[in-house]
Specification:
Layout: H1 2-13, E1 19-22, H2 43-48, E2 56-60, E3 64-66, E4 69-70, E5 80-85, E6 97-99, E7 102-103, E8 111-114, E9 117-120, E10 123-124, E11 128-129, E12 134-141, E13 148-149, E14 151-153, E15 164-168, E16 178-182, H3 187-190, E17 191-198, E18 203-204, E19 209-214, E20 217-221, E21 229-237, E22 240-244, E23 247-252, E24 255-259, E25 263-275, E26 278-282, E27 285-291, E28 296-303, E29 306-308, E30 312-318, E31 324-331, E32 334-338, E33 353-360, E34 364-370, E35 373-377, E36 380-384, E37 393-395, E38 398-400, E39 412-413, H4 424-431, E40 438-439
């Protein structure tokens, strides 16, 4: 009913809406943008445009833009939509990519400081210094194709192995950054691909309501793909979120904490749908509802998404006892190899799991997990750091873990971060959950990367 109403409202405003086109190769920012032949060119032009409710911005498939997309709100029944239009050329079937990272694959950028330590001051458009922590550097060694992640360290003295890096100064606050990088030779001579990801969200949503993201790809940020508080009437569908997270959040007791999620709805969220998206190589979690303030979360649907190689597929926590989780549904999603991604080995707290719940102090908890597929994990299938798992509606899921007797492995845990895991049958008996679920071999969906 909710989706039908949303579609009907869209149809009512379609005749009045304007379409704007963005072509990174042949567009010009001086164009009106109202046709593919008169397209805009840059992300800066899109972000500066004054869009009206119901307008649509269409990026050309197969192309790439660097920076963050500043999403503008629509109104009831007239959301602002950011989507695509057909591309041409070799990668015409690729979604338009919005990249937050800085390309450092140029030998001239790097300066030797001796002892295999190189430094660079990354800059963004117009030579402006990057004023955010560099949380990850995605690398491809020359002569190979697999992507790897540089290992983030916390001082120059810790740089001892190929690919180690330090984002200086050691601070979570804004300010110019210098990257120090350990390499046997100039990094751009060792690697053909060097994308340095700063702690800046891929999507900026100052008033996150009545908007649609459809068929776009967001990658290489050390913060979130989509984040922010107060989301309402949002639709995120058929989008890709990749190589996200690793930025420095804070330091307590001399222990640095990093973060970074695919789509995060912080605190209040109302009537939001995330569906048909793909998430891979994310430091924390692909999808999440969380917050520490008094808030209400209702009518949030995570549906038919695919997750690869993230630390967690879905995470939820609300630490304020006056908060209300009045309706969150996680259904029809497939997740593979949680905890096997780039960030796991770098994390001090390894918690590879498909479903994670930290503190759940909310006075209302209406949470549903059903008809999902969970394949392989380093730690747990379901991991609650609290005793409320038996309050959750969880059923008709399919689980599979590599190894002998997967249903007997200790893959289900609750009541604390160090709670002993138990097997499938005992978990079902003690919680009453997953009575119609089963362990069954799941066929992998081929892994994709740009």
């Amino acid at each position: 009913m909710r989706a039908t109403l949303f579609a009907c409202l869209l149809a009512c405003v379609s005749a009045q809406a304007a379409d704007y086109y963005v072509d990174a190769e042949h567009g010009r920012d001086g164009n009106p943008g109202t046709s593919p032949e008169q397209a805009w060119q840059t992300l800066e032009r899109v972000n500066a445009a004054r869009l009206n409710p119901g307008d649509r911005v269409r990026f050309k498939c197969g192309q790439m833009w660097r920076g963050s997309l500043n999403v503008q709100p629509g109104t009831q029944g007239a959301p602002v939509t950011y989507t695509s239009y057909p591309g041409t050329g070799e990668n015409a079937d690729w979604k338009p990519r919005i990249m937050r990272s800085v390309d450092l694959a140029d030998p001239a950028l790097w300066q030797s400081t001796g002892n295999n330590i190189w430094k660079v001051v990354p800059t963004i458009g117009g030579g402006t210094n990057v004023n955010a922590d560099i949380g990850n550097i995605v690398l491809v060694k020359k002569g190979t194709t697999p992507k790897t992640a540089g290992f983030k360290r916390w001082s120059v003295d810790e740089l001892r192995a190929q690919g180690d890096f330090f984002s200086s100064p050691f601070s979570s606050t804004a300010g110019p950054r210098t990257i120090f990088f350990y390499s046997e030779k100039n990094p751009a001579e060792f690697y053909s691909f060097i994308e340095a990801a700063p702690k800046i969200n891929s999507v900026s949503v100052k008033k996150p309501e009545w908007y649609v993201l459809d068929g776009l790809a967001f990658g290489y940020t050390a913060a979130h793909g989509v984040g922010g508080a107060g989301h309402s009437h949002a639709r995120i569908r058929n989008c890709d979120f990749f190589w996200i997270g690793g930025g420095h959040l804070y330091t307590r007791n001399d222990r640095p904490t990093r973060y970074g999620n695919g789509v995060e709805f912080w605190c209040t969220a109302t009537d939001c749908v995330v569906e048909g998206c793909r998430f891979w190589q994310i430091y924390d979690t692909a999808m999440t509802n969380q917050g520490n303030e008094k808030c209400r979360v209702s009518d949030v649907l995570w549906r038919n998404n695919i997750v690869y190689l993230c630390e967690q597929a879905y995470e939820i926590w609300f630490s304020n006892p006056e908060s209300e989780v009045a309706g969150v549904t996680y259904e029809g999603n497939s997740s593979y190899d949680c905890g096997f991604g780039w960030g796991h080995v770098q994390r001090p707290n390894k918690n590879g799991t498909h479903l994670l719940a930290y503190r759940l102090e909310s006075k209302v908890l209406k949470l549903h997990y059903h008809d999902n597929r969970f394949y392989n994990t380093t730690e747990r299938m379901i991991w609650f750091y609290n005793p409320r798992l038996n309050e959750v509606a969880c059923n008709r899921n399919i689980f599979w873990q590599e190894g002998a007797d997967p249903d007997k492995q200790p893959l289900f845990a609750w009541s604390g971060p160090h709670a002993k895991g138990i097997g499938f049958d005992t978990y079902r008996t003690e919680t009453g959950n997953d009575t119609e679920s089963r362990f069954e071999k799941i066929e992998r969906i081929p892994y994709f990367d740009y």
